Structure formats: C-alpha cells, structure tokens
Amino acid sequence: MERKLIATLRRINKGVALMVGLGLLACAGFVLLDIVMRQIGTSLGGTEEIAGYAMALATSWGMAYTLLELGHVRIDLLRSRVQTFGRALFDVFAMVVMSGVIVMIAVKAWPVVERSIVNNSRANTPLETPLALVQVPWFAGWVWFALVSCLVTLAALSLLVKGRANETEGFVGAFAEQDTLQ
Known about the structure:
Elements: H1 2-39, H2 47-68, H3 84-119, H4 131-161, H5 169-172, H6 178-181
C-alpha cells in the first residue's frame, strides 16, 4: 500500500512538474519576445513582474516533486554512519520535521491570500495585477506540498512500524546513496 501511494504521488507530481515546466518555458518565451521588442523600440511591459509570479508558482508547486525525487538538501553526517534501521529513523525524523515546517508555511500563507481576496488587493505595479490571481495558485502549491509531505511521512512511518525500514530508502532516503542501493 505504501509503495503504491508513493508511486501514485510520483506520477501526479511528474504531471505537475511538466505543467510547471511548460509555464516556465512560456514565461521565458514571453521575456525573450519582450527583449526582442525592446530592440525595435517597443515593449510588452511587465515581464519582470510576470516572471516573478512564475517563479513563485514554480517554487511552491515544484517542492513536492523535488521531495519525491530526493532533491532537497540534506546534511546526513550522522545518518551515513548507522545501519538501515538507524538511517530510516533519521529519515522519518527529517520527514516529520519537514512536514511540520511545510504545514506551518501553508497555514501561515492562508491569511495573506485571504486578505488579498477580501480587500481585492492589486499589485503596486503598472500592471495592477489582482494579487489573488497569483496568490491562490501559489497557496495551493504549498498546500499540495504539505499534503504530499505528510503522506510520505505517514508511508515511511508505516513501513518503519511494520519492520520494513529498508523500503523507506527509495522515497525518504538521501539521494547520494541511491546509486549504491539500486
């Protein structure tokens, strides 16, 4: 069950990563078009603002993908010195802490979004972008990351309790050790 959950989350996150990548590619095309237009004396305007929004969205939505691809930075000085069960304990501890931090970020992000919705806030820029248009998907990305992080943590805990600590390595282990395990 745990491995099936992780496989499903990986499949969903690959789709999310593809959409985010396409969005970043479109943003890069938009910026490139604006640069070319500036050479002929005109401009689309607002490219830096839109690029900033794209980066915020890519970051919030890309975090869950990075988690399942073992791409987050880890300092595993102690972890590398213990056997499989000890590594699994360190991994689960790291996931519990990460999940707590990410849930807190998602919880604290909501009042920002809510305030923008209630006040119909707009960016203090020439585009006057309604902030909710950007903040709602940004917030949804953090909620998705929190959900994925908690589900991954529960899956790792479940395997640990069942005495299958060696199976946690593939989805909560350290990336540097993956080549030696497969």
